[in-house]
Design brief:
By secondary structure, the chain is an alpha/beta fold. It contains 12 helices and 12 strands. The longest helix has 21 residues, at 172-192. Bound molecules: flavin mononucleotide. The site of flavin mononucleotide has 20 residues, from strand 4 and helix 10.
Length: 394
């Protein structure tokens, strides 16, 4: 059996009971109980200043806790200033950054969600434009706005794409610094009150760029064969696990495939997942792609739930719990994925931007909430129940 699947089903503490839904059953992971299987996926919002989380992040993420998600992830948060994707990305490279994040973690927890954070380093895809300014390398227009580029690092001096910033190839001192920065970030995340930490090993950012043969052509012990290319990811995992308490779950997000010929493959991801499991990772979060600068270069067909097959294969072949993500639109789709053994957790990204109350609506569509609105914030529920009755009479 994969993970520990609790058979007592409940929606959120103190609310309805049901024996009908896996999506709304709790998942105990180490000493933390996720109240349901809905996870808000990490999503950058490019709204921080100097890496500090602010009121925007509180309002943005707070909605998802009010919206019934069992776990809410703070976006990719740079463990080093040079590891931010853009000038607007959140960071955790100082105690001041940790204190700003503590406010978010506290709000999420107080409103029934498990607070989670993605620890990240953008590597050769750092110092980029915000998406709405072009989603590519910084240019003259960005400099005019005050968004100056900074020195970036990567496995080699090969840029992520044509016209992208040229990274400095990391030496062993840089590697040791990055490993330490992930550990320091995890310690600050713990102090800030987060219950789940996720290491970002996907989307062409630093750790993925070491994993993939497309970007890692190093000849030293951090490159070469798959074991060498996995070394940095595994050293970071060990360093984070050392400071992240034994009673708290650790996630690792992979790009399960590069989607390029001769790139990182699903078989590679299964091997990596086994190594991660041996080092105390609890959940592999299965995304894909991103190794080259431009998204369109990867050839991964994007249908509904297009990455679930990766989560299923890793779950079955590495014997580790997985989180799936990508074009999962509603409760019945998510429920079917879990019942079919595709994953243990379902992460929701853009659908939550469309509907921050996605989890509550999923509970209604699955019949877990039969119109009582008990799991909704009490500030709303009493009124909504009466509104529903009034609508019935129209
Ligand atoms: C606005 C936005 C920001 C994102 N930022 C991150 C991020 O910080 N870290 C990450 O791993 N993925 C990030 N992603 C990817 C999402 O976590 C998710 O994997 C992807 O959107 C697919 O899920 P969806 O179809 O439910 O949106 C982002 C996606 C969006 C839409």
């Amino acid at each position: 059996m994969i993970g520990r699947v609790e058979e007592t089903l409940s929606y959120r503490e103190g609310s309805m009971q049901t024996d009908s839904s896996r999506l709304f059953s709790p998942l105990p992971l180490r000493g933390v109980e996720l109240p349901n299987r809905v996870v808000i996926s990490p999503m950058c919002t490019y709204s921080a200043e100097d890496g500090l989380a602010n009121d925007w992040h509180l309002a943005h993420l707070g909605k998802f806790a009010l919206g019934g998600a069992g776990t809410v992830f703070v976006e990719a948060t740079g463990v080093e200033a040079r590891g931010r994707i853009t000038h607007g990305c959140t960071g955790i490279w100082s105690d001041e950054h940790g204190r700003a994040l503590a406010r978010l973690a506290g709000f999420l927890r107080d409103h029934g969600a498990v607070p989670a954070i993605q620890l990240a380093h953008a590597g050769r895809k750092a110092s980029m434009q915000r998406p709405w300014h072009g989603n590519g390398p910084l240019n003259e227009d960005d400099f005019a706005r005050g968004d100056e580029p900074w020195e970036i690092i990567g496995p080699t001096d090969e840029p992520a794409g044509e016209g992208w910033l040229v990274p400095r190839a990391m030496d062993t001192t840089d590697i040791a610094e990055v490993v330490q920065a992930f550990a320091d970030g995890a310690r600050r995340a713990l102090d800030a009150g987060f219950e789940i930490a996720e290491i970002h090993g996907a989307h062409g950012y630093l750790l993925h760029s070491f994993l993939s043969p497309v970007s890692n052509t190093r000849r030293d012990g951090y490159g070469g064969d798959r074991q060498g290319r996995m070394r940095l990811a595994l050293e970071v995992t060990e360093a984070v696990r050392d400071v992240w308490p034994q009673d708290k779950p650790l996630f690792f997000r992979v790009s399960a495939v590069d989607g390029l010929e001769d790139g990182w493959s699903i078989e590679d991801s299964v091997v990596l997942a086994r190594e991660l499991k041996a080092r105390g990772v609890d959940v592999v979060d299965c995304s894909s792609g991103g190794i080259m600068g431009q998204v369109k270069k990867a050839m991964i067909p994007r249908g509904l739930g297009f990455q679930v097959a990766f989560a299923r294969q890793i779950r079955e072949e590495a014997g580790i719990a997985t989180q799936c993500v990508g074009l999962i639109l509603d409760g019945p789709q998510a429920e079917a994925i879990l019942r079919g053994g595709g994953a243990d957790l379902v992460a929701i990204g853009r659908e939550a931007l469309v509907d921050p109350f996605w989890a509550h609506h999923a509970a209604q569509s699955l019949g877990v909430d039969q119109g009582g609105f008990e799991a909704w914030p009490e500030q709303y529920g009493w009124w909504l129940k009466r509104r529903a009755r009034a609508l019935e009479k129209l």
